[in-house]
Specification:
Layout: E1 5-13, E2 16-24, E3 31-37, H1 45-56, E4 60-63, H2 75-86, H3 89-105, E5 109-119, H4 121-131, E6 138-142, E7 160-165, H5 173-186, E8 190-195, H6 219-236
Parallel strand pairs: 3-4, 3-5, 5-6, 6-7, 7-8
Antiparallel strand pairs: 1-2, 2-4
Helix pairs in contact: 3-4
Length: 245
């Protein structure tokens, strides 16, 4: 019996050679694709395992890179790279488009059926792809209730789901409210799930290096957020499309 397979892919973006993780479902037919973005620290085994899990569900999944093959565990260094990136929508879109092109040109991917899911900085990249008008079937984010340039959310042409911890100091209530106002004004089909008692990066298992204040793992909500992501994909990007619907 054939099983899910993986391989490393290299591609240029943001002046760097990015190193992504591509997970392919069993079989040889075309399948819907999922672009998977990491937290600000960069691509790690956490996102690789999530891509593998999506491939087991039948998706072609690409976990994309932010830092040219590096995982930036030092909080000060991570912030020094991510804060300017988050302030520059065009750079985020460039990183997202480069990864999206890799996923779209993969022979196993149905290029018309792709979703973008991201965590933290990777979620902001997913949202900027939507604001740039990328053809996506769904956008899902965790810890990334970021807002964009005025009016550009009107280019989002797919449902948006956002999850955030109620105690996240990096995405506080005022930020969540601004995100909701932007989505409403743009007429986007959007949902916001607030996980009670959760901090920033509540979905990410504990790491063995220092983190910025307000970060903490919440096992129960991490499982719930993953189920919410899978449910979003099942609704908007089913592995087998019902042509009679």
């Amino acid at each position: 019996m054939t099983t899910m397979t993986t391989r490393t892919v290299e591609y240029p973006a943001d002046g760097l050679t990015m190193i992504g993780h591509l997970a392919l479902p069993a079989g040889a037919d075309r399948r819907p694709g999922v672009l998977l973005g990491p937290e600000g620290m960069g691509l790690s085994d956490v996102e690789r395992r999530r891509a593998d899990a999506l491939a087991e569900l039948g998706y072609v999944a690409l976990a994309f890179d932010l830092h040219g093959g590096r995982y930036v565990g030092d909080p000060e260094e991570m912030l020094a790279r991510c804060m300017p990136l988050l302030a520059d929508p065009d750079r985020m879109r460039g990183i997202g488009r480069a990864a999206l092109d890799v996923l779209r040109t993969e022979p196993r991917t149905d290029p018309d059926r792709i979703a973008a899911v991201g965590y933290g900085t990777g979620g902001a990249v997913a949202l900027e792809l939507g604001r740039a008008g990328a053809h996506l079937r769904a956008i899902g984010t965790v810890n990334a209730t970021t807002t964009g340039r005025p009016g550009e959310a009107a280019r989002i042409r797919c449902p948006v789901w956002a999850g955030v911890g109620s105690e996240d100091p990096i995405m506080p209530p005022a930020q969540r409210d601004a995100f909701a106002a932007e989505m409403r004004a743009a007429g986007v089909d959007w949902r916001l799930t607030v996980y009670g008692g959760a901090l920033h990066a509540f979905h990410h298992p504990p790491v063995d290096h220092p983190v910025v204040p307000g970060v903490g793992y919440h096992r129960q909500h991490a499982r719930r957020a993953w189920r919410d992501v899978v449910d979003l994909l099942a609704e908007c990007l089913p592995v087998t499309e019902d042509l009679g619907a």
